[in-house]
Amino acid sequence: MTPSPWIAYSFAALMIVTAGYCVSRLAASWRRHRPTDQLADAMHVLMGLAMAGMLVPLLRVYWTEGWEGLFVVAGASFGWLAVREWRSRPRVAVTAPHHLHHLLACGAMVFMLAGGGTGDASARGTTMTSSPSELHTLSLVLALGLLACVVWTADRLSSLAPVSALGASGRRAPMSLRLEACCEIAMGVTMAYMLIAMY
C-alpha cells in the first residue's frame, strides 16, 4: 500500500495503541462512572483497528462488507451533534469543531473502505464511478481537512484542563480531555497520511 513499509507499520502500531487506550477509557468510564465521550472513544477503537488493517494486511481483523454503513451511521450521529451544538453556540461554541472533526473522519473512513482510497476497489467488490482525477481531488481535500482539524486540536490542547488519571477521591472526574485530544491528533495524522500516500 505504501512505498515505505516501516512507515505503514509505525502508523499501524500507533493505531493499535490508540485503539487499546480508547478501550481502556470506555472500561474506566463504565467501572468508575467517569464521564467520557463514549461515541468518540468507540469510533476511535473501530477506526484504529480498521486503519491498522488497511496499513498492514496481516493485521486485518474485520470483514469488508458492512463497515462503510457503520461509519455512515456514526458520521450522521456526529453531524447531528455538531448541528445541535452549533445552534446553541453561545454556550458550547468550542465543542462543535470537535464533532465536525469526527464527522470528517467518518467520511474519510467511508471513502477508504469503499475503495476510493485503496487503489484496489475491485478487491473490495466496489465499483467506483468517479474518475481518477476526481478521486485524487477528494482524497486531497479530505487529507487537508483532517490536517486542519489536527492543527485546531493541537492549538487548543494546552487550554484543556488536566485531569488525574485515577480521578479525585470521592469524585467522578472526567476522563482526560488532553489524552482524548491526542487520540484525535493521532487518528487525523494517520488518516491524512493514508489518503495522501494512496496516490
SSE arrangement:
Blueprint: H1 5-32, H2 38-55, H3 67-87, H4 89-92, H5 96-113, H6 132-156, H7 177-197
Model description:
It is a single chain. The chain has 199 residues and is mainly α. The protein has one domain. It is 68% helix and 0% strand. It has helices spanning 5-32, 38-55, 67-87, 89-92, 96-113, 132-156, 177-197. α1 packs antiparallel against α2 (38-55) and α6 packs antiparallel against α7 (177-197). The protein is globular and about 50 Å long. It starts with a helix and ends with a helix.
Kindly estimate the percentage of residues that lie in beta strands according to DSSP. Answer: under 5%
Low-confidence parts: 92-96, 117-129
Q: SSE order in H/E notation?
A: HHHHHHH
Percentage of residues in helical conformation:
55-70%
Query: What is the tally of beta strands?
Result: 0
- Rounded to an integer, what's the Rg over CA atoms? 17 Å
Which structural category do the helix and sheet elements fall into? mainly alpha
| N-end to C-end Cα span | 10 Å
> Biggest sheet, in brief?
none
Which outline best applies? globular
Seen as an oligomer or otherwise, the chain set is single chain
- pLDDT average, as an integer? 78
Number of helices: 7
Domain module count: 1
Keywords:
single chain, 199 residues, mainly alpha
How would you concisely characterize the structure shown here?
With 199 residues, the chain is mainly α. It contains seven helices and no strands. It has helices spanning 5-32, 38-55, 67-87, 89-92, 96-113, 132-156, 177-197.
